[in-house]
Specification:
The chain is mainly β and about 150 residues long. It has strands at about 1-5, 10-15, 20-25, 30-35, 45-50, 50-55, 60-70, 75-80, 85-90, 95-100, 105-110, 115-120, 125-130, 135-140, 145. The strands form 4 sheets. A 4-stranded antiparallel β-sheet has the order 4-5-6-7, with no helix packed on it. The protein has a 4-stranded antiparallel β-sheet with strand order 8-9-10-11, with no helix packed on it. A 4-stranded antiparallel β-sheet has the order 12-13-14-15, with no helix packed on it. Keywords: Repeat, WD repeat. This is SPG16 protein. Pfam families: WD40 (PF00400). One of its GO terms (cellular component) is axonemal central apparatus.
Amino acid sequence: IVVTGGDDHVWKMWALPAGNILMAGEGHTDWLSGCCFRPSGTQLVTSSGDTTVRVWDLSKRGCILTLQGHARAVRDCSWYSWGDFVGSASMDCTSKIWDVSSEKCRYTMRGHKDSVNSIEFLPFSSTVLTSSADKTLSLWDFRTVSRL
């Protein structure tokens, strides 16, 4: 199974190798930039040019949460390996850690001087890696929102 998103504002889940569409999700109002499965496989997070991050419940076949707080397009998203946290990277030069349980932004990480283009949680740690159009990588401890 693979998930794709594109300029049509829709994510699609495909069965491989046959290429059949198993499911699709509509709701974003601009291009999709990222799709990431929750480690348990029960949910999906997507990021979009519409400045939002959405959480989708695959068994309900719909969006269960829209996270808003970025000022510009969101370029990437990622699930934390433990717990209910999602990371987002935005063209507004910030990245955010969202608490899915409380439906709120837990931390905003500032320090890049240009668009933050990717975010990834290092497995089984509190370390987050971000990359930016300012040609830098940053490692963060998301418990303290400090650069490492």
